[in-house]
Design goal:
Layout: H1 2-22, E1 27-29, H2 46-52, E2 61-65, E3 71-74, H3 76-81, E4 89-91, E5 95-99, E6 104-109, E7 121-126, H4 129-135, H5 144-171
Parallel strand pairs: 1-2
Antiparallel strand pairs: 2-5, 3-4, 3-6, 6-7
This protein binds 2-acetamido-2-deoxy-beta-D-glucopyranose (NAG) (2 copies).
One 2-acetamido-2-deoxy-beta-D-glucopyranose (NAG) binds near residues 81, 85 and 86.
Length: about 170
């Protein structure tokens, strides 16, 4: 009996490990450690520079960290004009996770008056799976957050396995 329980646990673990590496997208913290803030006057392109250093794929997530600010997803025209009247997405929680659910461009601006004009805006281009196959290469530089969430996933799995093994051992 112990052997089959062990086998079950191993199977679970391998299954979860595969999920972790293939299904889970990357979690990019926008702007790195600085987060989502009004950029300094001499560096107003900071977010587009940051975005162009990363290779986003469908299933990845963007994490915006900020204080007393907000995030909006808008159209290209609204991005250019810093028009925040009709965002298709709005959040001001301070820790916004936005799922990049399809390929193509996404346009983000700050919803706080004047911030977008000072450069707190960003275009994120999400590659289609063909494009990312073709260009190959490694993932972006900001991947540490996602390995952390992967690790968190593993510790949950560890707990689950502990509970399972407890149940199995009390049954037999
Ligand atoms: C902007 O100015 C600060 C302080 O003067 C400096 O440390 C920083 O390197 C400058 N950044 C750019 C992109 O020029
Ligand atoms: C802002 O966008 C809305 C909706 O897209 C539009 O109706 C409005 O005229 C725009 N305002 C400016 C100042 O461009």
């Amino acid at each position: 009996m112990a052997a089959s329980a062990l086998f079950f646990m191993m199977t679970m673990f391998v299954f979860c490990a595969l999920q972790c590496s293939t299904v889970t997208g990357f979690d990019y913290q926008v702007g790195g450690a600085e987060g989502w803030v009004v950029p300094p006057a001499n560096d107003s392109k900071v977010y587009n520079d940051w975005a162009s250093e990363n290779r986003f794929r469908p299933g990845d997530t963007l994490r915006f960290k900020y204080k007393k600010d907000s995030v909006m997803e808008v159209t290209e025209a609204e991005y250019k004009n810093c028009n925040s009247t009709r965002p298709s997405f709005f959040s001001n929680t301070g820790n916004t996770v936005y799922a990049l659910d399809h390929s193509g461009p996404f346009y983000f601006i700050s919803g706080v008056s004047g911030h977008c004009q000072k450069g707190q805006r960003m275009i994120v281009k999400v590659l289609s799976s063909e494009e990312s196959e073709a260009s190959g290469g490694s993932r972006g530089s900001s991947s540490s957050a996602s390995s952390a969430s992967c690790a968190a996933g593993f510790s949950k799995i560890g707990f689950l396995l502990y509970v399972l093994s407890y149940i199995t051992s009390s049954l037999f």
